[in-house]
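ugh ok fine here u go
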Amino acid sequence: MNNIKFATAIVGLLSLLTLPAFAQDTNLEGTVIVVNKRDNTVSFIDVASKQIKFTQATGKGPHELALTNDGLWAVVTDYVGGNSLSIFDVKKAKKIRSIDLSSYPNPHGVLFLNDQRRVAVSSEGSDSVVIVNIHSGEIIKVISTQQKGSHMVALPASSDRVYTTNMSSHSVSEMDIQSGKLLRKLATYNIPEAITVNKSGTELWVGSNEDGLVTLYDLANGKQINQWKGFSFPYRVLLTSDEHYAVIPDFKNDTLDILDRVNQKKLHRMKFERGTTPNGVYFHPDDRTLFMSAYGKNKVLVIDILSGKILFELPAGAGPDGVAFSPITFE
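structure:
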C-alpha cells in the first residue's frame, strides 16, 4: 500500500474512533529529547527518521527536563530517589556530570535562567528553589518558598523572579532571585501543579488538579483574569513563544486543550485514545508544532496546534514525561 492510501486509511479509521486525524507529514528535522520515567533513561529521537538514536541513563526517578536555547545542553531532574541533576551534552548525546542535591531532595521543576548556565530547580523535599550552575556543579543559592509541596517552577524572560506551585499549601510563591527573598504568597485553587508566566512577568497561569481548573492571574494585583473549567488533571500549561496560544495536556482526561490567549477563548480540545496520558509539552521553533509525551503509549506525539491534528508519532522509552526539541541532528 502506498503512503497516500495508507494515510487515507488511517485518517478514516481514527475519525471513527473520535481521535484527531493524522495530518500530512512535514519535513521536520532535529532531535527530540525525552525523559523515560519508568526506565530511568533519556532518549534522543531523530525526528526525520522517527527513530531513537541513543538512550542514556539518568539518575533514579527522572521526571522533568530543561534545555538551553541553543539546544546544546539538557538537564534532567532525578526526582524519585535520585536527588540529583543529570547534565547532558546534546551534541554527544552523553551524560557529562551528575550534581548532588541530596541536601535538597526531590528536585522536580527545572528551567534555565537567561544566562543559560544556571537553572532554577524546585526541591519538593526542602520546599525551596535551588539555583545551580550546571557547568561547575555549584549550588549558587537556596531560596525558601515558605510553603509545602513546592513542585514546579516558572520564570519570566528576565529571570529576575521565580514562581513555584505549592501543591500542599494550595499556593504560588513568588521569589526574587537576586536577593533570595520571598516576595509574596498567592492563594490558588486546590492542589496547584501546572504553572507558567508570560515573558514580561505580568500574567500567571496555574492549573489546579483537585478542582480541575486553569486560572489566569494578573500579577500586578494578584486578581483573576480568566478561568477555564472541565479538566481532571491539567498536567502542564505552556505558551507559544509569541504568546498567542496556550496548550494544556490533561493527564486523566486524555485531552489537549489549545487556547487562544489573545482572544481568551478555546481553539480546540483534542481527544486521544484512552490511556494515552498526555504529559510533557514543548514547542518546535516554528511555534505551532507541539511535541507532547504520551506516558501511557511510550510515544511522543507531534501535533499541529492550529488544526488540532496529529502530524506523526515518535517512539520513546517506558513512561515518557519531560520533553524538549533541539535542532541538533545525528548521522
